[in-house]
Design goal:
Largest sheet of chain A: 6 strands, parallel
Oligomer: homodimer
Distance between the termini of chain A: 84 Å
Helix content of chain A: 40-55%
Strand content of chain A: 5-15%
Radius of gyration of chain A: 26 Å
Shape of chain A: elongated
Order of helices and strands of chain A: HHHHHEHEHEHEEHEHEHEHEEHEEH
Strand order of the largest sheet of chain A: 2-1-3-4-5-11
Chain lengths: 344, 344
DNA sequence: CTGAAAGCGCTTACAG
DNA sequence: CTGAAAGCGCTTACAG
């Protein structure tokens, strides 16, 4: 009995499955990969034999021969940020559907850690990498990836070239700013976006250009993407300050909400507030957050598919997708109060 | 030039590094793994040669021979939950430090998806799996993992046996409940914890036993771990209801806060509120959340190390660690108001 | 330290 | 469909 158990522990190989099914090794190998050259009956017989023996396909052995590991390396700049957590979920889901496994590395915005993890991923022979670049990443990263012959795509934050999927930050912020202008605001400030990257730049430009077009001047209250810092900043805002805040993203808007409530001010009534991203919490926020919807999960799925295209068709030029944002008008901007007034 | 580039694209193997360094293949192989039998000089010469050629170590080939892939499969029940996102960050960090790469799968609380991803992980020859079991996972999962000879550990949610790291839920909820009793509350209700798993059970018991010991009856308002649902539930709470709410976790407490604020009630002043977990947002919440601190990141790190122990010492019995929680007294419980009164 | 050799479990091309 | 064989890039044990 003990010996039988020991025998069961030995690794089952294709050779063993072939013997059990009464076919040749090459036939079993084809059957396990559902090759259409084989009869259904044969395939079924082999699959049954594999199940009986508890056979587990060895992808690392297959990798050695075929050069495909069916793994993708994912570099997340900060997974504790709910936006990137949802994005990660979208990526993993799409990769899984395509038969790929996701290797995860959270770089915590460290370019050094990012570099080390890329090295790890190369050693693991990933078929490609999906990158949300850490703040401060050199644009030459793309050239290195090319030199390494490593299929790649950037997500949300990107560079001048290379496959990419991300929201149209400029358009998104334009929508939010125009909405506040339509509600009659003239002193609209930009809260957050202290980091220097393509996302901050795009969002700031969307705001600044819209203000310029309206003949109004800009105001910037830079802060990290951090609930606490945004809350502090808003508490120190002068009473005679802006009447509306376009926030860099939803987390900053959450912080602003808490800071305002602490002062006895209600977003939407005493001051208008908009976010960016539309993460899960935003719709059930108090007050429900008016924000620019970019669907982190959807962005992750699109990015994953763009990378898979790179892997499967290396010859075609890399796709760059700008996802069109939409404005979700809820209560933090105060639009519902205007509507009520109009109705009354 | 074009030809030179083409040549540079060919895979560099240990054999090539050995030739470049002017040593034997076996020497180069040892040098690349920093074997102490070699002289520093030789090791350096080989490393330099490897760098010159752009050599990348092939772990999947090494895996085939040595049986170690240096990868760990991580099954996360819901990565968009900030508690589990932070936990994931802790796990990935600890595994990276130990030289392991993390394979990620987000099961979204689906036991079926969990099973499929385990299959994937086995095919990828992971050295072990770290599991935050999806709700509804059969306890027999542990037996299967044993039968597969797959080193494993559970995190937060666990079973009767097997390596495990998680908070002491019973003690944690006892601390929160006792604190509210000390503040004079008699009608304390439990909010959340609708799911059936070891975590809900433990937290409920910690609350219920403490109430029983004080001769008080329990009240349960079950809801999913969801800001929106908790906010709704709290809005419908009768005025003559409980004066304090112990929440299943911080997210539920956040939802409760928003629901109360919407009614014009302030947590800490009009009703006492406690959370569980102490995720990043809790300290900067409005009002700052009194909660049971379990450090998701630290829990992840401990769990990772327990799993690595299983891998390195399969003979020793699996470790089961209950992490001691501490009560973080902030403002949502109203304790600061009592203190002020006492001082005045 | 050298050098030749076997083997991990697949894939793949080939003659039958 | 069969059956034998080569090869992916390592590790590892061994005689020198």
């Amino acid at each position: 009995m003990a010996e039988k158990q020991f025998q069961a522990m030995q690794r089952v190989r294709i050779k063993d499955v072939a013997r059990e099914a009464g076919v040749a090794l090459s036939t079993a190998a084809l059957a396990l990969r559902d090759d259409s050259r084989l009869r259904d009956e044969t395939r079924r017989a082999v699959r049954d034999a594999a199940a009986r023996l508890g056979y587990v396909y060895d992808r690392s052995a297959a990798m050695m021969r075929s050069g495909r590991s069916h793994t993708i390396g994912l570099l997340v700049c900060e997974i504790t940020n709910p936006f990137y957590a949802e994005l990660t979920a979208g990526v993993e889901e799409a990769l899984d559907e395509a038969g790929y496994v996701t290797l995860l590395a959270n770089t915590s915005e460290s370019a050094i850690r990012q570099r080390r993890m890329l090295e790890r991923f190369r050693e693991q022979s990933v078929d490609g990498v999906l990158i949300m670049p850490a703040t401060g990443t050199s644009p030459s990263l793309i050239d290195e990836l090319e030199a390494w012959q490593l299929p790649h795509a950037t997500v949300v934050r990107g560079f001048r070239k290379g496959a990419h999927a991300g929201p149209d930050n400029r358009t998104g912020m334009r929508l939010a700013t125009e909405h506040l202008l339509r509600l009659g605001h003239r002193r609209i400030a930009f809260l957050g976006g202290a980091a220097k990257n393509s996302v901050s730049t795009g969002r700031w430009e969307g705001y600044a250009r819209t203000m310029a077009k309206a003949g109004l001047s800009t105001e910037h209250f830079p802060c990290q993407t951090d609930i606490g810092e945004a809350a502090m900043l808003v508490q120190d805002l002068p009473r005679s300050g802006p009447t509306a805040l376009v926030c860099f993203n939803d987390s900053v808007a959450f912080g602003a909400t808490l800071g305002l409530l602490r002062r006895g001010l209600t977003p939407g009534r005493d001051i208008a507030l908009t976010g960016f991203d539309d993460i899960q919490e935003s719709a059930v926020w108090f007050p429900p957050l008016t924000t620019v919807r970019v669907s982190p999960r959807g962005t992750g799925q699109v990015a994953a598919n763009i990378l898979l295209e790179r892997i499967n068709n290396p010859q075609t030029p890399p796709r760059r997708v700008m996802l069109e944002p939409t404005l979700m008008i809820r209560e933090s901007c105060g639009a519902h109060l205007r509507a009520e007034v109009r109705t009354a």
